[in-house]
UniProtKB/TrEMBL annotation:
Pfam families, per the entry: peroxidase (PF00141)
The EC number(s) this enzyme carries: 1.11.1.7
Source organism superkingdom: Eukaryota
Name of the protein: peroxidase
């Protein structure tokens, strides 16, 4: 509910924009709607304090420039909405939680990200949850999962049924944005197969180790990678549209 209100609010501010800008900028709303960012910030903080999962949901939507802890960065504004939506492309382009390291690296590389940026972005799994269906095989069949965590996960994620039962991606500090996701990986406590792949004897192990020991390094790399993600082929100027309902094409 609050979620859709925030999205509505964002759309509303975008609608207020009469001017057409040709590219993203951090002060896109400075003249047309100077209070936009503080209003958004207030609404986001309120929503997150009411419902902790909102932080993860918003992070997933890439609508974020503030956290109660953790990194912050300056967001490039003025991105317009697509006139199309593809269920098939969403399924084929987004990396799967069942992927091995090499496929994860390929999937991110297809969008212009290095393996290093992929590891940094994966740190967003310090908050948020996943469905039983997405990690059942890992819990029951994989030997690379900490046995104490496996036992506790089995109680809410049985061998069959309860596919939608949720567990935290970071079981240690599930609602705090910190570097414990990487500490977990170093201790074989990654929830998803794709999480643990980042620390499984491959080329990304050393970076996971670095982040697990140094949150400042993680935050700096994460912020840079998020800004980069926000600039993936953005629609600007008169391209695309400004949706009256963010969830669907006008
Ligand atoms: C475990 O692996 C076997 C063999 O691949 C598979 O048939 C079974 O469904 C898996 N169990 C779970 C809980 O995913």
């Amino acid at each position: 509910m609050a979620h859709s209100k925030i999205l509505y609010g964002l759309c509303f501010y975008m609608l207020l924009l009469g001017l057409v800008h040709a590219q993203l900028s951090t002060n896109f709303y400075a003249a047309t709607c100077p209070n936009a960012l503080s209003a958004i910030r207030t609404a986001v903080l309120k929503a997150v304090s009411k419902e902790h999962r909102m932080g993860a949901s918003l992070l997933r939507l890439h609508f974020h420039d503030c956290f109660l802890s953790g990194p912050s960065w300056t967001v490039q504004l003025g991105r317009r909405d697509s006139t199309t939506a593809s269920f098939a492309a969403a399924n084929s382009d987004l990396p799967s939680p069942l992927m091995d390291l090499s496929d994860l690296i390929t999937s991110f590389s297809n969008k212009g990200f290095t393996a290093k940026e992929m590891v940094a972005l994966s740190g967003s799994h310090t908050i948020g949850q996943a469905r039983c269906l997405m990690f059942r095989n890992r819990v029951y069949n994989e030997t690379t999962l900490d046995s104490t965590l496996a036992t506790s996960l089995k109680s809410s994620c049985p061998g069959t049924g309860s596919d939608d039962s949720l567990s935290s991606l970071d079981a240690v500090t599930p609602v705090t944005f910190d570097n414990s996701y990487f500490k977990n990986l170093a201790n074989n406590k990654g929830l998803l197969h794709s999480d643990q792949q980042l620390f499984s004897g491959g080329t990304t192990d050393s970076q996971v180790k670095t982040y697990s020991l140094n949150s400042a390094t993680f935050y700096a790399d994460f912020a840079k990678a998020m800004v980069k993600m926000g600039s993936i082929s953005p629609l600007t100027g008169s391209d695309g549209q400004i949706r009256t309902n963010c969830a669907k094409v006008n």
